[in-house]
Design a protein that fits this description.
The complex is a heterodimer of chains A (192) and B (189). Chain A has 2 helices and 10 strands; from the N terminus they run H-E-E-H-E-E-E-E-E-E-E-E. In chain A, the strands form 2 sheets. A 6-stranded antiparallel sheet of chain A has the order 1-2-3-9-5-6, with no helix packed on it. A 4-stranded mixed sheet of chain A has the order 8-7-4-10, with no helix packed on it. Chain A has 192 residues and is of the alpha+beta class. The model of chain A has no long low-confidence stretch (mean pLDDT 89). Helices cover 19% and strands 27% of the residues of chain A. Chain A has helices spanning 2-28, 53-62, and strands at 35-37, 40-42, 72-77, 91-96, 103-109, 124-126, 138-143, 150-153, 161-167, 185-190. Chain B is α+β, with helices and mostly antiparallel strands and 189 residues long. Chain B is built from 5 helices and 9 strands. In chain B, the strands form 2 sheets. In chain B, strands 1-2-8-4-5 form a 5-stranded antiparallel sheet. In chain B, a hairpin with a 4-residue loop joins strand 4 and strand 5. Classes of the chains: A alpha+beta (192), B alpha+beta (189). At the A-B interface, helix 1, helix 2, strand 5 and strand 9 of A face helix 1, helix 2, strand 4, strand 5 and strand 8 of B.
């Protein structure tokens, strides 16, 4: 009787530990080979043959196709520079310059990777559309209501992610969390 | 008390094994991976456009809306493929994925260095069967080895402004991926 109870107990522990950690690892995302720069994080290895098993499982589960490393690299921001989650009801300023790249795009998604509908039908900016300062730096205002300049509408959703994709860029697997790679700052300006 | 701790330890160990096995098996059991999502809209060994992502509907999550996308769902079991993709005005890339979504090769227009990206896609076995003919091993022939028999080729053309999207789409309509006829084994006789 004791043996059976013990065995059942061990199996229950195994199920909770095994499935719980798997679920956690895949839903939170793992950090193998992450290149964090300010609020932005890239996983350049996801676009290569050396992608780790956790990333493989996460990709299969979400159904996305990662950016190949010969194509470009994607930086994801889920928070501002201070670590506060990006909130679609707040005004967020994305400001500065990007690493060297032939083109880049900045796209706003909900946390599941869907685009957000809005009145001006804008979900992204490319490096060619953006209005810049005379020194080449830019300001993008991510906000629920219309703003002058480069306005990326959030439509007031709770949580969103920003993805900055650099195409034809030297940034990649060899890049360490580097000071020499300038990424735009992400600052929460005002919240209602 | 000790006995229960031992059971707990055994359970945690077994849980760790379950965790590893689950992570490794998951890609094989996924029914909503990119390949399964694209299969209904893409015939085998042909280039077809992928619908642009919109807030209402998208084929895959995290697609870049600034790009026109086309896909070739390939099957190399009947021989190697030849991929031809004319480059668009701004930026064109070709990315290769295995059946499980591993991006094993990608090249952009500038790296390809000409107006048309031309690649031969084959499995390692098919590559080793290639005759060692000088014409075929000529340096200008770009050969890509696929780790899996089936997979996806994603062709993408950038529209730097929304107004340029039709021309980006247009560039992709001229792309093709076709079985190489000359690679078919000659009938014995």
């Amino acid at each position: 009787m004791r043996l059976v109870l013990g065995l059942l107990f061990a199996l229950a522990v195994a199920a909770v530990v095994g499935l719980g950690t798997t679920w956690l690892a895949l839903s939170r995302g793992t950090a193998f080979g992450a290149v964090p720069i300010g609020a932005w994080t890239a996983w350049p290895k996801i676009g290569t043959r050396d992608v780790d098993p956790y990333a493989r499982a996460a990709i299969a589960r979400s159904g996305e196709l990662p950016l190949g490393s010969g194509d470009g690299v994607a930086f994801v921001a889920q928070t501002d520079d201070g670590g506060r989650p990006l909130d679609g009801r707040c005004d967020v300023l994305v400001s500065g310059t990007t690493p060297q790249a032939r083109f880049w795009t900045l796209t706003l998604y909900d946390p599941q990777g869907r685009l957000i509908g809005n009145s001006i039908d804008r979900q992204d900016f490319t490096s060619q559309e953006i209005v810049r300062h005379s020194d080449g730096a830019f300001d993008i205002i991510v906000a629920p209501r219309a703003r002058a300049g480069n306005w990326l509408p959030t439509n007031g959703i709770d949580r969103y992610v920003l993805v900055l994709r650099l195409y034809d860029t030297p940034v990649g697997v060899a890049t360490r969390a580097a000071r020499e790679v300038p990424m735009p700052t992400v600052t929460m300006k005002s919240c209602p | 008390m000790i006995r229960w701790l031992l059971w707990l330890l055994a359970g945690a160990l077994l849980g760790g094994i379950i965790h590893l096995v689950a992570v490794l098996i998951l890609p094989r059991t996924a029914t909503q991976d990119a390949y399964s999502r694209l299969a209904p809209i893409s015939p085998v060994n042909a280039v077809v456009p992928v619908p642009e992502p919109s807030p209402q509907k998208e084929v895959m999550p995290f697609m870049d809306p600034a790009f026109a996308t086309a896909v070739c769902r390939y099957d190399l079991s009947n021989g190697p493929l030849k991929l031809t993709a004319p480059v668009s005005a701004a930026y064109t890339s070709v990315s290769f994925y295995t059946r499980r979504g591993v991006a094993y090769y990608a090249i952009n227009d500038r790296a390809a260095g000409r107006k048309v990206i031309e690649l031969d896609l084959m499995t390692s076995a098919q590559r080793s069967d290639l005759p060692e003919d000088e014409d075929i091993t000529a340096a200008d022939r770009l050969i890509v080895e696929s780790p899996s028999t089936t997979g996806l080729i994603l062709l993408r053309a950038l529209a730097p402004e929304p107004g340029l999207m039709p021309s980006a789409h247009n560039a992709l309509t001229k792309a093709s991926c076709q079985q190489q006829q000359e690679q078919q084994p000659a009938p014995a006789g």
